[in-house]
Structure of 3-phosphoshikimate 1-carboxyvinyltransferase:
Amino acid sequence: MAHSSSQPRTIASRGPLNGTVAVPGDKSISHRSLMLSALAIGESRVDGLLEGEDVLATAAAMRAMGADIVREDSGTWRIHGVGVGGLLQPAGALDMGNSGTSTRLLMGLVASHPITATFVGDASLSARPMGRVIEPLAAMGASFSDTPGGRLPLMVRGIAPAVPIRYTLPVASAQVKSAILLAGLNTPGVTEVIEPIATRDHSERMLRGFGADLTVEDMPEGKRIAIRGQAELRPQAITVPGDPSSAAFWLVAGSVVPGSDITITNVGMNPTRTGIITALRMMGADITEIAPRTVGGEPVADLRVRHASLTAIEVPPELTPSMIDEYPVLFVAAAFATGTTVARGAHELRVKESDRIATMAAALNACGVTTREFEDGLAVDGSGGDPLPGGATIATRLDHRIAMSMTVAALHARAAITLDDAAPVGTSYPIFFATLDRLMGTDA
Ligand code: S3P
């Protein structure tokens, strides 16, 4: 799925990675900071916003719906919101690029406003299922014209007032949960989401921080999250912690490349996001947490990772929601472990930016790694710490995490690995390769 502006890139191993890196702002939190600031009355300020393409798509969409969003030189963003219920009719289609989070969360916001918005995206996003948000938002009263199969391009016709619902999530998805809560923000009465399996809770934390009336309760059937609609949001000053999903590439690189010693500063440690650290530690990774603290209502720490011999594990399926974006790089860690790592219960990987089970199986196979594909996961035979044969060209399929994961694989391979297109890295980690050069000492 490489496209006309593809940027091929070849990565050769060059020995250990050493140094200190600060990962960019958390993608999930960055999206939500812009959306909620755009709904507050008054000026919010966001420091450490991820300036990747996905988040910039959210910024452009919120501007198109009336918010005043300005980037200052320092990388600080200032947002003047329109107030809950105040979103304006966008003049043109909202281009979501590659971003599923922007699309699904904004569909929720539009659903309870008296406006109509058309969502378009790239080939990857246009293949992803939107029925999972259409169903609950339609129950709230919004109407949809979608491409067959519940895909983009699609049009959302919002309604005000929308009708509150009580909805049990059929898939463990923070995006679906958040879309409903955001729709509930401008819906009179109490909108409830029941979450049988806990997913990332950034929306809940941040909605509360902005002053929304939101409660979370543990019930026998799962977490019950209730939002009382049509409250006013108060502007906030937000500091976005570093993205644990971006830190994951360095955690694996540091673990598998002999002689490495990397410190990653300011990493978000929200327990709904740290499954990769748990899994890597189960495999024998040497990861230490330094100076745990709280930043902007989220737990944060610095992490030090040193090379270690990894041993294969059966990945506990209950870790799936807290490491859903980290499976591609976990499969790379598995490729260097002793024994066969088996990950099951991760069917959702089939509907991410690419089919991450098939894409990673093909990529690892091309580099000389034996894998066995399941409908809901992958088994990966490890090299016992030896370098991979490598020497292949990888189809990254418009998927940033495939590009970065296979870059990590290339750091301990006998022959260089080429990405057919490294451009997708810009969606979540624009300075990934510059940081890699620094850690390898090749940036002089
Ligand atoms: C996200 C939720 C997850 C994750 C995505 C970001 C979010 O998606 O994969 O990268 O910010 O809510 P799902 O909700 O589809 O699992």
